[in-house]
Amino acid sequence: MQRVDITPDGCLLVDGRPFAQDPLILLGEAVTLEEGFTLGSWFRMIQLHTDFVRLSQFLPALLQAAAQGKGPMPPDCDRLELVRTVELVGHPGPARLDMYTSLIGVHNDTPSQEVPIKHIPPASLWDAPFRLGRCRHMVLGDRFAEFVFETVFTLFELIEAVAWQLSFHGASAECALRR
Questions:
Q1: E strand residue ranges, 19-77
Q2: 122: buried, middle or exposed (CB in 10 Å: 19+, 13-18, 0-12)?
Q3: Which one is predicted more confidently, 33 or 139?
Q4: Average pLDDT value over all residues in the chain
Q5: Could you give the angle at the alpha carbon of 38 between the alpha carbons of 37 and 39, nearest 5°?
Q6: Within a 10 A sphere around the Cβ of 178, how many other Cβ atoms?
Q7: Helices and strands counted in the chain (H then E)
Q8: What's residue 111's pLDDT?
Q9: Rounded to whole angstroms, how far apart are CA atoms 156 and 27?
Q10: Looking at the record's lineage, which domain of life comes first (predicted)?
Q11: Is residue 26 a contact partner of residue 1, using CB atoms and an 8 Å limit?
């Protein structure tokens, strides 16, 4: 597996050099985010590599909303973090294993202090530092028995998960989905 570095200005680097070919061939590759990467960097990456817009039906509207400018950063959100959760669910039965990726806000550099960000428009999170987080393993909904592991995110997961999560931003609280 190759590693793709993404710069704060949204450029894709492979082996330290800008990638000039079709970026879709990199979708299955692991990504690292360079120091200074923000949610605005994620938008710049989509704008630079327009083929990515075809990956999610939400991206055209998100790009249009982002073009309207930046908003004030919420004071209680220090950074954004993309996290993966593997959850064993036993009730109601039958037992199942759920795996999902979420974009969360973090305050005071403490992952346990998640900040709800669904009510915040993406423009207000534009300058929020952005990190790739860990994989959380939860058994039967017990957050006290939660384990945390290192994990790898692919370029496709980064694009799709952020687009999916941001598609709910700005919706009224009554329309917000739980999780």
A1: 30-33
A2: buried
A3: 33
A4: 85
A5: 135
A6: 3
A7: 3, 9
A8: 57
A9: 5
A10: Bacteria
A11: no
Q: For residue 8, give the amino acid letter.
A: P
Closest CA to 37 of 156, 136, 149, 132: 132
**Paired tokens of 84:** 């993966």
| 171 has a pLDDT exceeding 80 | no
Structure-token match 């993406």, residue found = 122
Structure tokens at 99: 């795996």
* CA-based nearest residue to 125, from 154, 159, 166, 157: 166
Using only the alpha carbons of the chain, give its radius of gyration: 17
Number of other CB atoms surrounding residue 158 within 10 Å: 22
Asked whether the beta carbons of 104 and 168 are under 8 A apart, the reply is no
d(CA 135, CA 12): 24
For residue 90, what are its two tokens? 């036993």
Helix (H) or strand (E) holding 114: strand 110-115
